[in-house]
Structures are given as C-alpha cells and as structure tokens.
Amino acid sequence: xxxxxxxxxxxxxxxxxxxxxxxxxxxxxxxxxxxxxxxxxxxxxxxxxxxxxxxxxxxxxxxxxxxxxxxxxxxxxxxxxxxxxxxxxxxxxxxxxxxxxxxxxxxxxxxxxxxxxxxxxxxxxxx
Amino acid sequence: xxxxxxxxxxxxxxxxxxxxxxxxxxxxxxxxxxxxxxxxxxxxxxxxxxxxxxxxxxxxxxxxxxxxxxxxxxxxxxxxxxxxxxxxxxxxxxxxxxxxxxxxxxxxxxxxxxxxxxxxxxxxxxx
Lengths: 127, 127
Prior knowledge:
The structure is a homodimer. Chain A is an alpha+beta fold. The first copy, chain A, has one domain: HIT family, subunit A (2-Layer Sandwich). Chain A is 30% helix and 20% strand. Chain A contains two helices and five strands; from the N terminus they run βββαββα. Chain A has a five-stranded antiparallel sheet with strand order 1-2-3-5-4. In chain A, α1 (36-57) packs antiparallel against α2. β4 of chain A pairs antiparallel with β4 (61-66) of chain B.
C-alpha cells in the first residue's frame, strides 16, 4: 500500500515497469457513478502519480487505463512505459514484442516522494 | 468528426463496439503537460461520453485508456464493452476471445445526442 485515506488507496501492480493502481474505497462500477468530488480526486491522484513517475523514472511515455472488466470496480492504472519494456509500443495488455530489459532506479525513494505528495494534496487541513 | 471546438475534438474509432477518441487540438505528449483548464476539459469530455454511452448503448462495462505509444500525442479512448464482443473481458488490445456478435442500435441518434451535450457543456456562453 503506497497511500490510503478515507476515499482512495494506491497500490503497486507487480510488473517489470513502474505500475500503480488507484482504487476508490467504496466500490463503484463506472467512473461516472462516483460522486463528483471522488471522481475529481481520482483524476487528481492520477495526475500526481503521472508527474511523479515522469520526474523519477523518466519514461518514454506514460500510459493510463481504467477497465475493470473482470472485476467491475473502478480503478485507474498508471504505467511508466519504456522502449525496451516487453510490450512497447503495444499496451501492457497487447502482444509481447521482446524480452524486456528495463533498468530502473530503486522504487523506495519514489514511493516516499509520491506518498508525501499525496498526503500534502489530500491530507486533512488543520487550523 | 463528432464534435470540435478550439481545444478538443472527438472522432469515432472504427470498431465492432462504440469507441470514441478524444483529442486535444494542440499536441501534448503527456496528460500532465496539458494546461490545467485543458486537462479538466478532457476529463469532463470523457465523463460526458461515458454517461451518454451507458445511457444509449447499455454496455456491460465502460473502458477508458490513454496510451499514445505509437504517436506520442494525448488522446483518450472511451469504449463501450459488451460480454459478446470479440475481446471481453480482455481489453480491446488483448487476446481475442471469440467472434464478436454485438448487436447495437443505430449510431446516428447517439451522435446527435452526444454532440448536443458537448455543445451545451462547452459552447460559448452568450449574454
């Protein structure tokens, strides 16, 4: 678990690439079924993850997706893609192109940075 | 072309399912490189498309994606998915599961409705 509050939580997807899933705490089937404030928070959380991934991992391209066909529960995928990953330029669900050989820095400083940014953005404002 | 204004345009992707692509007029590589107002408009446009597709086509699940690995230019895919389409529950970029046999109503009334809603949302407000 990278981050959690009353509305959302973020966790890693096990992968050769940096891949994070953003879930709502309450289950909704479709993005537009989420209350407005929660949907805005999902978009904002994705933006924070994307910016942090670009800054830290310097991917060739960011990929975003929200499917939920197997388990119809809203979650957003944020994926940092590299020309030398196993599927590029196909989506991560596409046809394998090669044996991936992505070299990545340690995830721990990234996770600390991302968690801090999410807390700063969404943390309770105290007087 | 389903809709166009100074910031965005929407067009159909040829497919067995209802599939719309939302582009920015100015090319940006990543979603977070878009100016705030444009990014907010992209999310809003996706929401309007998703709601209209759910209402008109009654899909089993909505799918959203933004890749741009082949052409690194921001665009969002909105896909109405059905249990009997060729790929469900895989993403449209996944492994084919069957010969699709999706029965869909005429797209024209949908396109008229969607275009109206986008104009209402984004049209110039006149005094």
